[in-house]
Amino acid sequence: MRHIVSSILLALSLCVVAMTTAQAQGLPTTTTSSSSAPEAVEINPEEMTTEAINAMVARMSDDEVRAVLLDRLDAVAAAQSEEAAPKSLVERATNLWHAFSQPLLGAVRKLPALVPAQITAFQNFAETYGGFGGVLTLFGLTALLLAVGLGVEYAVRTWLIKVRNPEPAESGATLRESVTFLFKRFLREIFGLVIFYITIRTLGRTFLDAQAVTFVAPFIGYMIWMPRIAAAFSRLLMAPNRPDLRLVNVNDHWASFIHRHIIGIVILGGATIFVVDFNVVNGVAAGETRIGFWIDSMVYVYIAYVAWTAREGLSEMMRGDDPDRTEFDESVARIYPYFAMGVAGATWVLVSTLIGLGKVQLLLGGAHYTTMFWLLIAPVIDTGIRGLVRHVVPPMQGEGQVAHDAYIATKRSYVRIGRVIAVGAVLVIITRTWNVSLLSLLQEGAGIGDNLFSFAMTAIVGYVVYEGVSLYINRRLAAEMTALGMSQEDADNEMGGGGGSRLSTVLPLALVTAQGAIIVVFTLLAIGNLGVDITPLLAGAGIAGLAIGFGAQKLVTDVVSGVFFLVDDAFRVGEYVEIEGTMGAVEKISIRSMQLRHHRGPVHTIPYGEIPKLTNYSRDWVIMKLKFTVPFDTNPNQVKKIFKKIGQEMLQEELYKDDFLQPFKSQGVFDFDDVGMIIRGKFMAKPGKQFMIRKEIYNRVKAEFNAAGIDFARREVRVALPDGAKDLPEAEKTALTAAAAAAAQQQEEQAAAAPAKGPD
Question: For residue 689, is it left (φ>0), alpha (ψ between -120 and 50) or beta?
Fold first, then answer.
């Protein structure tokens, strides 16, 4: 509304000026006047004041004012309609190409005027300061200020702040020593620069006039102050000539090369701003020579040269020295030099386009340099994150492959979280640098830039929450699995293997549920930040959920039954269970079903809703009873002492003592058969450990029986021959023995098969 009112007032004033000018020149006007029209006075529009405009409007009739207002309102409405008309993609691309190419063509056309205009700027500069002598005096004062400032800085840094430089060691300094020294040296340099700045500012305000300050202050700021700050940061990172203290993985040659050229790039970038300001102050407009465009272009060419020349060192620096690098890390290291060249080229295109669009104000504060810096430094930040994670990640808990895999997964999660946070921070810095105007250049709808920024930040926060929850649950799950110490080989090959803890069973389901909830919630929030109304989505999801609930009652039954089974702690992952004759170890559980792995290999998938009764063979403890058949003449007390001895010895063994709940001992004579006495022993152990213990007990019992002269009873067939048959040949005796053995075997088989027939 303010723009409309101001436009109307401007139109009124211009119309009045035009009318009066036309009358003064004897030209006809489009308005009618009374016979007693006032005498026209020629007025310069640039000299019009508010009082003059009001006086002229007062002399106009109501019809004239109304006509001017209507004409102006129609013009404003037509202009707004033209601006609001949507442009096609081809028109937008054409406009962007025109905006990009025109500054470049203009700079080329103005090359012949560059040197003369620059000479004019220097002449104006010299005239301002009283000729050549005045310029020399100004340069001398500037050099004196620099000398005094550097001297004071050196004195403060040398006498007041002393940082002990650690001597190179054969094995290199530790990370703590390196970081401590480099950070202290960096703080010393920054403090020295502050002292330098305070000294220069104080002396400059004292000995220089306001006109001289307009030259000296930008020169020192852009050409000395900024490069020295860049040198301090680069020295902190690269540590030239001190490989034992260097925080990045690069050799001395490339460290010194990159350090030198970082300073050179900053000097060249500062020269762009300084020269443009210098010319404007001395009467040469920025668009007259376009020297700023050419110096700025040299900055991007310089960056591309450094990236191409030092591509080997940059790739090695990005690769780092982490032994657990991924293929993604290797890819980033390989493409980083080309990424740097692409960023330099893209920034050059962006600057040219913004100049063509008339957005030069966005470039005056160096927003393009800030953007380019953070884009170039982003992979370096990534390398720093990976190096930092190596030292802050919690140590591996326990031993074995499970613990190692959990440790590697934790490192990768820390790295991913750090990367996302870094991306968010860089995005915030860049958007604040441009005041989100960069996005609005590509989108003409109001608020699109803010919506996109909110969408990106919501996605970043959601991902950090997703990774944080996954990291916490996975670490707890790995700790539970490692603490169990199960022998998976034994648990899978025999019935009744030990299972995991309750947490190890519930945590996978909790992880899936939490991840799904986080994805749904933050997806809806992100869509809402784009300006999309999510109320219909929520209503549609509710209706769809209701329809699924009615149409999938069996699924709901399975899910609810599974929840109650888990609440009752009926089974855990790894436990051996039986469900209606189906037996196996619980290998996997999901929201609606469980998978049982039979000890012979088959996998059974059983929905929770189909489990009427569940028998768990692996809960808390297991009693195993072993039978040994010995001859009738064996002394049971002797066997009892042997069993007790074996039980006590195994309790002392490191391999078995923690697995026993009750030692192995004899239960005495259990039964008699036609072969001998059956003596039974038993022990109580943790689930899953009984089979390893049983194997060892069998081996030890056999060895002790041999040492004691006790044989295991064997089935024998004795054939009694009459006295007259004693003189039969050996062949006939053997045949009779074989026939008797066959008859005995047949009788045993018949006796074994008789109970299976059941009652008549």
Answer: alpha
Q: Write the DSSP assignment of 637-654 as a string of letters.
A: HHHHHHHHHHHHHHHH-T
171 pLDDT tier (thresholds 50, 70, 90) = very low
Structure tokens at 416: 């991913």
Mean pLDDT of 372-395: 76
Q: What is the pLDDT of residue 263?
A: 92
Beta-carbon contacts of residue 523 (< 8 Å; ≥ 6 apart): 462
Number of residues that make up the chain: 760
pLDDT for 115-126, tens place per residue? Answer: 888 888 888 888
Residue 289 has a pLDDT of: 81
3-state secondary structure of 27: coil
Helices assigned H by DSSP within 208-310: 210-220, 226-238, 252-281, 286-289, 291-309
Element (H, E) at 439: helix 437-442
**Tokens in use for 758?**
């059941």
Q: How many CB atoms are located within 10 Å of the residue 517 CB? A: 12
The residue written with tokens 């026993």 in the block is: 660
The rounded distance, in Å, linking the Cα atoms of 69 and 242 is: 76
- In sequence order, what are the residues at sequence separation of 6 or more whose Cβ sits closer than 8 angstroms to the Cβ of residue 342? none
Share of the chain above pLDDT 90, in %: 5
Rg (Cα) of the chain, in Å, rounded?
Answer: 46
pLDDT recorded at residue 50? 63
CA distance 376 to 337: 10
Q: Which residues contact 173 (CB under 8 A, 6 or more apart)?
A: 166, 181, 244, 245
Q: Inform me whether the pLDDT recorded for 54 exceeds 80.
A: no
- The closest of 493, 482, 481 to 695, measured between CA atoms, is 493
Strands of 660-672's sheet in order across:
622-630, 677-685, 660-672
Q: How far apart are CA 59 and CA 74, in angstroms?
A: 24
Q: Is the pLDDT of residue 309 over 90?
A: yes
Residue type, 138: L
For residues 153 and 196, the answer to whether their CB atoms sit within 8 Å is: yes
pTM of the model: 0.57
